[in-house]
Amino acid sequence: MATKQPLTLTLIQQRLNSYPIPHADLVIGIGRGGAIPAQMVAQKMGAKLLVVQVNYRDDENTPQREMPVLLEDLKVPVEKGSKILLVDDVLVTGQTLQTVKEKLQGYEVVTFVFKGKADHVLFPEINTCVDWPWKTQEISNSEEPKDRRAFLKSLAGLTAGMMLPLSGKPLTDAFGNILATRSTPERDRLGELLPKRKFGKTGTSVTMLGLGGAHIARMSEKEAQKTIETALAGGVRFFDNAESYGNGLSEKRYGMFLTPKYRDVAFIQSKSTARDAKTMKEHLEGTLKRMNTDYLDLWFIHAVGSPSDVDNRIKNGVLDVVLEAQKSGKVKYVGFSGHSDYKAHQRMLERTDALQVCQMPINAFDPNYKSFINNVLPQLLKKDMAPIAMKTLANGGFFGGTSHFSHGDKPRIVPNALTVEEALYFSWSLPISVLVTGADHSEMLQEKIDLARKFKALDEKKRMALIEKVAGFDGRFVEYYKV
Description:
- The protein is of the alpha/beta class.
- Helix content is 33%, strand content 19%.
- A hairpin with a 5-residue loop joins strand 9 (171-172) and strand 10 (178-179).
């Protein structure tokens, strides 16, 4: 394999600053590879930005399809006749850019790539493959990478690519640049949505905050209804659940207060802890009945605990049931989740490429102890799977909790190490699709909705400072769910 020519972010930025970029009313980036280049170009120009997802080549630049395919409808937020700058990292055959250009009839389109052949080329002198600075850094499967700081910095380079320019408020990418946004927030029949993020290779997008279902069963019925309605009014459209939450009570409450009126706007997921095919099928039918719906947007193999647990479930037909449910239309997307052992996640990723989503703990303490961020997140990004973050407050571990749900209402932060804002912003500053939060009541959920609306990504220095701030805690105390 030919040696790749490395390019530093500093060198790219210097070249971009001196390049005569043509005027445009809108910059369109080709995701995934062109997302960050387009954001850099749009930021320099002060132009609006739109990133479109196209599936054609893999990370080794090998075609996966006969022709490029757009994974989502192209909705252009400028009038016909406007000037559009179409940006990608590399042009090989030109088919990807041409596919998008054909969707832009009536616009004046100019192409710009960082390497290759186009109307404008940032590095025309480069004829070899390039090692781009924002590509996922390969790490070993050891429990702690040798250079945690460099690793997290490389992850941050992908965060901007997850963000969708759909909010009326400015967002910053992992390099500290302000991302261009649409002039008006996205809305549906209920009102303004929270900012949305890309959902892996599914071609869809989800709100950056989701309501966790486990706490719904622990509330009074009145408070459960209020919390669900607070989520909807606040722009949350992602709703988590599982058949095991409250022995099905959480699902029943979604069936009472969510699906009858709001199924058309709600993205609903549920999960099953079944260890065999027969139980898995029973769980799905029970879930659909309790939640008063004929399909799920997402269904999980839930709470995988170890590599042997993964092997046994697959041997007993659980994965087959999940894939058949997707084929039949009872579920749109499929995935897996787990709390305790990142090696279980690694085993699932080794055993199958058929799943699209993974849910796991993501928080500021995680890099210090049995880390999912260090050992699993890079693999998800490489497979273009959607990462869902949970336990972002360490299940109350940052706030004095020492067992499941025992963190209290608004407990004292122990030992005054992190605020709720810092904990959530750390996780949102990594390349996750959605943060699922467990709220004890509607007021607690509203606090997190308000934080989502004013979110700006933490830079690498601030993220590392938070990691170091909690590094002295005992892992078994703070993240008891991993023990």
